[in-house]
Amino acid sequence: MRALVAVFAALVVLAIGATVVGRLSNRADTDVTGEAESAGRGRSESAQQVPTRKVDDPVAFARHVVALTGEVVGRGPISRRELIESFTTPEFGPALADTTAAQLSELQLEFGVAGLGPADLRAVEVPVTARLVERVGDRARVEVWSVVSVAVERSGGARQVWRTVGVDLDLVEGEWLVDGWDSTLGPTPALAPEAPISSAGDVADALAWGAVRSGLN
Hints:
alpha+beta; 4-stranded antiparallel β-sheet; 7 helices; 4 strands; 26% strand; globular
């Protein structure tokens, strides 16, 4: 059981954070499956989910983007890619979208749940603290410490994952865009000795209440 938890935690970090380090350029976009999603969704809907980037605050933007984890995980393949590419550079966005999709597929295999879709997987990531590591001209590096809650109802699994996300940002025409993303597990606080472990259904019910927005708009 301990091994399964460790594997799950590693997969979650990859699946909802897509551990990709640094600038990824010259990467061809791949074809996405033609699912029956509304053509009217497009980039305009995705853009509504991210904050105004014309602010001189890379820390606030990085914190808000990390908090979009649940939104990214809960979308279908097409609208997930649109959302990711709405807050990333043209060079990095397709790579991050591809990696996220691949790791979500690995998560499905790990739990042995056939046909795992957005309706089966609920996730919320809450940034706890954040810091500016470096800013040089139009480039910035921010670290965000956060906790992720994930429930896969049909597998009976629910987990928490504490991680530190490193976000590389580019200031492009006055807007911050994500140009690199990496994550590491921890630091992880211990549960209180008397803390009860809830079922996946109970966790999923709480996750369905809706994420608390950062207030950046």
